[in-house]
Amino acid sequence: MSVVLLNDAIVHYEVLGRGRPVIFLHGWVGSWRYWISSMQVASTSFRAYALDLWGFGGSAQEKNRYTLDGQTKLLDAFLDEMGIGKIALVGHGWGASVALNFAIKDPSKVDRVMVTNCPIEPEKLDARLYTDSTEKLATRFSANIPDAQTALTDAKKTDQDAVLASRSNTNTSELFDKVNRQHTPCLLVSGGKDDLVGQPSPLKLGLSDFGQHIRFENAGYFPMLDSTATFNRLLTDFLALDSGLSIKELGLKEEWRRRVR
Question: In the predicted model, what is the mean pLDDT of residues 255-261?
C-alpha cells in the first residue's frame, strides 16, 4: 500500500510498470482496486497509477474536498508531488467527470482521455446512487461478475457524503464537449446494459475528429470487470495511438463493433 500526504491528508495510490504515465480514476462504487487487471495490462508498456479519490478506499475523508473541483485538485497535487508530467487519463463514472475536468483545466498535461460509463446526462443517473449504500450498489451492479466481490471490497469504506457531493455536478455534458473541442483525443466507452449511468444520446455527444464512442453491448456499469479481455484490448490500442493523431486512426468503428457483440 502506497500513500502520499497532500494538503495534510493521506491519499492512497498504487503503481505498476515503467514508461509514460497513465492515471486510473475510479467511480462512485469501489476504489482503485477494480482497475488491477487494466493496470497490469497497461504496465507492460506504461507506468500505471491508480488513485483513491477523497472519501473513497484508503484516502482521507476530507468532506470539504468532495466537490468536482476538490477531487480535480487532488489529481493536480498528486502529479506535482510525484513529479509526473504529461499523462493519459482513464476514468470511470465519477472518475470520468474528474478526468474531463482536469483535461479542461490543464490541457497541456493531458495527452489523451478514456472515459467509461461517464454521466454525460446526469438526469439519467439511477436515483439509488444517492439513496443506497455503496456496498449495496456494489452487490447490485456486479451480481453476475466473477470475482467482483474482491474487486469491489473497498465499497464499504466509502463516505456516503463523497457520493452525495457529486450530485451538484450537472455539467458533464459540457465538460465532454469542451474536451472534444480542444482536440484532446477522447474515447467514450459505455456499457449497453448499464442502468446506473444510462446511455448517452448521440445528439449530446457532438464528437469531433478527436472523439470516439464505443458501446459494449453486453457490458453493465463495470466493463473492465464483466468484459475484461475486450476492455483491455481497447485500452491497449488507445494508449498505443501515437500522440497528436486523431482517435479515428484507431479504426474502431467496424473492428470493435464486431468484437463487442
Answer: 46
Average pLDDT, the chain: 90
Dump the DSSP string for 83-94: T--SEEEEEETH
- Neighbouring CB atoms inside 10 A of 244's CB total 10
Cell of 158: 466509502
C-alpha cell at 237: 490500442
Residue in this structure with the C-alpha cell 465499497, named with its chain if needed:
155
Pairing type for strands 46-51 and 20-25 reads: parallel
CB within 8 A of 110, min separation 6: which ones? Answer: 86, 87, 88, 89, 102, 103, 184
The residue type at 106? D
Minimum mean pLDDT range among 115-119, 187-191, 196-200, 241-245: 241-245
Alpha carbon of residue 241 to chain centroid:
19
Task: Walk me through the domains of the chain, giving residue ranges and CATH numbers.
Answer: 2-260 (3.40.50.1820)
